[in-house]
Automatic annotation (TrEMBL):
The organism's taxonomic lineage, starting at the top: Bacteria, Bacillati, Bacillota, Clostridia, Lachnospirales
Organism in which the protein naturally occurs: Blautia producta
UniProt entry tagged with the keyword Transmembrane helix: yes
Domain Major facilitator superfamily (MFS) profile: 222-429
Protein name, per record: MFS transporter
InterPro entries in alphabetical order: MFS_assoc_dom, MFS_dom, MFS_MFSD6, MFS_trans_sf
Signal sequence bounds: none
PANTHER family for the chain: MAJOR FACILITATOR SUPERFAMILY DOMAIN-CONTAINING PROTEIN 6-LIKE
């Protein structure tokens, strides 16, 4: 019986390692694809003949639709029997890949390009909270998935691909982005197919239905304030990201330089993400989120004041302490604050408001303002709005109980899961 238990524990360990590696590959391939379809969106759409305003309509419109699309898709996973996170991700991958191939290879009128990209970007944005929720499900079930490292390696992949794609675009043509995206999506699809379905990602008979978005926000004031504050912060951040190519060109750079700038932004996230687990054990998620909001202000300020590319690159690198802290910590914050039945919707709310509302307003306003009042004035407004978002996040009260309230819940779940597996092994033995 002892040997049987040892064999079962070893099999469980091997399975846990497999799940961890698969989830890391999922993050890596997704963010390489994301770099092609979203990171170089302005380069690609300008190549297709769109103005800054039309680029803003395309990217911002997608973000606007995501406001409703993301919670709708997350709600389907929580309500439709048999529809799981895995199946939803696979369906979106197939739809977006097919559409993007059409967009990149078939001559289309400008407004058709705007409409098609809007739909594709909307769907692809919707994958992010689903992937995050899948990682949390694995961790809650006791698998040794390290979300921070997996997401950090996703940023590494985005950073490296930004440099490579920048060089490919400069030496060939922006249309090559279509084929890079399609190739990475095939790899992403293969990884997702091979992955084990999280046990609770599909509806169960006894599962309590998830709460509505309004119910969740009304019942959690810190979440409401963070959602509002970071929605505004992300609005300014999206302007800097989408129109980074304009900033680089204004300071004397090229498309290749833009790739390097995108690398700096993504690569700078790695230290914060790799240290995420350690930081959360030392400082509460609320304090870390409030800290990250400081750098959401400093980043556009440095870029606004930058006299040359070198200083601008320093501003780009502040993404480490803004977005780099916000991204993983917000995930753990949701996992700690909300009930199990509401976590998928909760992750979606953060994505809905930041990537959805924030990006929508930022991209639409950014493109409109740049075509009318110029780049410099637009960057100055970014600083002001980021400061407003910062002030809202600072209204969140941090309890005296300290940072560890429910912070080790995942680890407790892991331990309970392992104990359960041992008991099952004993019974079967």
């Amino acid at each position: 019986m002892h040997d049987i238990r040892k064999d079962k524990e070893e099999m469980r360990r091997i399975k846990s390692v497999q799940v961890r590696h698969q989830y890391t590959l999922l993050q890596c391939f997704y963010w390489v694809s994301s770099c092609a379809i979203m990171g170089f969106a302005t380069v690609f759409l300008q190549y297709k003949g769109l103005s800054n305003t039309l680029v803003g309509m395309s990217v911002g419109g997608a973000a606007f639709i995501s406001i409703w699309m993301q919670p709708f898709l997350a709600g389907l996973v929580g309500k439709v029997r048999g529809l799981s996170l895995k199946k939803m991700i696979l369906l979106i991958i197939l739809a977006v890949t097919s559409g993007y191939l059409v967009l990149g290879t078939v001559p289309l009128p400008k407004m058709a390009i705007v409409g098609l990209y809007l739909v594709l970007n909307t769907l692809y944005n919707s994958i992010t909270p689903l992937i995050t929720a899948m990682g949390m499900e694995y961790m809650n079930q006791g698998y040794e998935v390290n979300f921070c490292i997996s997401r950090g390696l996703g940023s590494v992949s985005y950073a490296v691909s930004a440099v490579v794609l920048g060089q490919l675009v400069e030496h060939f043509f922006p249309g090559i982005l279509t084929f890079v995206f399609a190739g990475m999506e095939l790899l992403l699809f293969a990884v997702v197919v091979s992955m084990q379905e999280p046990e609770s990602s599909a509806v169960k008979e006894e599962q309590e239905p998830s709460s509505s978005v309004i119910e969740i926000l009304k019942g959690n004031r810190p979440l409401l304030l963070f959602v509002a504050g970071f929605g505004i912060c992300y609005m300014t951040s999206s302007i800097l990201g989408t129109y980074m190519i304009n900033i680089v060109r204004e300071l004397g750079g090229t498309d290749g330089t833009f790739g390097i700038a995108a690398f700096f932004c993504a690569a700078s996230e790695m230290p914060a993400m790799f240290l995420c687990n350690y930081l959360i054990r030392k400082v509460s998620c609320k304090k870390l989120l409030k800290l990250s909001s400081v750098f959401f202000v400093l980043r556009p300020l440095v870029i606004f004041l930058a006299p040359n590319l070198a200083v601008a690159f320093l501003g780009f690198a502040l993404q480490s302490l803004s977005f780099g802290i916000f991204t993983p910590v917000s995930v753990f914050f949701i996992n700690q604050e909300l009930k199990e039945k509401d976590r998928v919707v909760g992750q979606t709310i953060f994505g809905m408001v930041t990537v959805g509302v924030g990006s929508c307003v930022g991209n639409l306003a950014g493109g409109f303002l740049m075509d009318r009042i110029g780049l410099k004035t637009t960057l100055g407004l970014c600083v002001i709005f980021a400061a407003v978002g910062f002030l809202i996040t600072q209204r969140v009260k941090v309890e005296d109980a300290g940072p560890r309230r429910r912070i080790l819940q995942i680890e407790d779940n892991r331990a309970e899961n392992k104990d359960h597996q041992r008991e099952r092994g004993k019974d079967e033995g």
